[in-house]
Amino acid sequence: MNITTVGDDQKMISAYMKIVDATAQQLLTGASVLGSMSTLLKSQQDFTQQLMDINTSSIGSLVDANIEEESTKLKALQTQQQLGVQALSIANSSSQNVLSLFR
To answer: Which one of 26, 55, 84, 101 has the fewest CB atoms closer than 10 angstroms to its CB?
Structure first.
């Protein structure tokens, strides 16, 4: 073996080690970025799910409020109708009573 050959081999091994170290560092950096992106995506997914749940709940409340409003309107109309029928009944009986006085 030649001494210059051993030195050249050590230089090549050192160069390869530097390449391996740089590659490992790039892999660690990439994994770190991937992990932070994964966390960001998870939080955005959770936020979107919460918004969907709130929208579903809000729509249900609006529908319930609409049904209650319509129910109230219907009851008011039914009451008006009953009052109208009673007013007509009173008016008819009053005229009957007045006519009976003249008989």
So the answer is: 101
Q: Which residues of 78-102 are buried (b: 16+ CB within 10 A; e: fewer)?
A: eeeeeeeeeeeeeeeeeeeeeeeee
Q: Which amino acid is at 94?
A: S
Q: What is the pLDDT of residues 51-103, one digit of tens each?
A: 999 998 888 888 888 888 888 999 999 999 999 899 888 888 877 776 676 76
d(CA 41, CA 92): 76
Tell me the pTM.
0.49
Determine the Cα–Cα distance for residues 45 and 39; give it in Å rounded to an integer. 10
1 burial (CB, 10 Å; 0-12 / 13-18 / 19+) is exposed
Q: Mapping DSSP to helix (H, G, I), strand (E, B) and coil, where does residue 103 land?
A: coil
CA distance 7 to 2: 9
